[in-house]
Amino acid sequence: MAMSAMDLVLGRGGDQAVVRRNGRYEFFGGKTQEVEKRTKVKARTVATALEELIEEAENILIMGHANGDIDSMGSSLGIYRMVKSLGKKAKIVNNTYGLTLKDFIEAVEQEEEYEGVIIDKSEALAEIVPETLLVVVDTHKRSYVEVPELLNKTSKIVVIDHHRRGPDYIENSTLMFHEVYASSAAELVTELLQYTKNETTLTTFEAESLYAGIMVDTKNFTFKTGVRTFEAAAYLRKNNIDIIKVKKWFQSDLESYNVISDIVRNTEVVRDTIGISEYSKEDENANLICAKAADELLTISDITASFVLGKIKDTVCISGRSIGEINVQIILEKLRRRRS
Fold it and tell me: Per-residue pLDDT for 61 more than 50?
């Protein structure tokens, strides 16, 4: 249990202590800025191991997180291409998506290459056989995957993620590529594609999808970017990607833009640098609206941290963002523990 707790802390970036008490984890510290300290050796090793698992499998299911975004979908398409290059069958599980994926999904549906590739929950469950390999991208949390039932019905699971590890992680994974110093899951998948023994050639659309995934998680290469981020982006740019086409996937409709503007307008600034606002309307896309509003607040001078609260049915969602010394994740983790 102590070794498991140590892995958990290292998966959150280190610089902290963890105490397991009454079956729950409590974290202390972890306030310093993350420093990129991962090696290409691990990427090569994981790429080789992943290829072997794919070759041994009868079919492969690729799954992101609930209410998927372009990072999770772009990463899924990257893994899909790796699987196809090895001559194996692959399906991408996408049961739900919000506003941010609407234009992207429409673009995917126009590509003949992916006809019948994206499946829903019922189709995914019907695809499972004893030798099915499940690849989870852009999340490591059991409760946050697109179809949690798949975790219990498959014996071989691969996890590729860049978020700070939480207590609800997938413990029974066969292979885990979890690097909190990476900008995005798309960056990690791009690295794996470069180091595969079997040469993988991306289509232009797949390269654009991975590039979009990096863009959305780095806020156009301004947050959490390292040398490896730009190396991955340079590799993808070689595939003749259309930057204008990628930018259009991020455009908001006028109604959503006005909603976000109202949220920003009603912001209360506390302690001179923290912006707090709320989205009072009940909306199934509240978490996405709140996330965009929190990002927008950081474009205002003197605001170094932002929190936007919304409501989805009986659940309150909070999006926190920071560009300063305040670690919003620690604050939100404490709020979640207090709630539960």
Answer: yes
* Residue given tokens 């949690």 in the structure block: 148
Residue 215: phi and psi, rounded to 5, are: -60, -45
Contact in structure between 232 and 191 (CB atoms under 8 Å): yes
Question: 26: closest CA among 38, 12, 39?
Answer: 12
- Give the bridge partners for 321, in sequence order: 306
Q: Pull the structure tokens for residue 133.
A: 């390999």
Pick the closest to residue 91 from 129, 117, 57, 121 (CA basis).
117
Residue 69 CA neighbour count, 13 Å, CB half? 21
Q: How far apart are CA 323 and CA 50, in angstroms?
A: 35
Q: Which residue has the higher pLDDT, 284 or 290?
A: 290
What secondary structure does DSSP assign to 65-132, as a single string? BSSB-HHHHHHHHHHHHHHHHTT-EEEEE---B-GGGHHHHHHHHT-GGGTTTEE-HHHHHHH--TTE
What are 138-152's pLDDT values in tens digits? 999 988 899 999 999
**Is residue 16 pLDDT above 80, yes or no?**
no
- Spatial separation of the C-alpha atoms in residues 137 and 324, rounded to whole Å: 28
In terms of Cα–Cα distance, which of 151, 35, 134, 2 is closest to 79?
134
Looking at every residue in the chain, the average pLDDT score rounds to: 86
| Nearest CA-CA partner of 109 in 138, 73, 72, 144 | 73
Task: Report pTM.
Answer: 0.80
Q: Report the alpha-carbon distance of residue 274 to residue 314 in Å, rounded.
A: 26
Find the radius of gyration of the CA atoms of the chain.
Answer: 20
Phi, psi of 172 (to 5 degrees): -95, 30
- The helices-and-strands tally (H runs, E runs) of the chain is 13, 12
Q: Which stretches within 110-240 are classed as H helix?
A: 121-127, 149-153, 185-194, 204-218, 227-237
At position 148, the amino acid (one-letter code) is P
- pLDDT at 3 exceeding the cut of 90: no
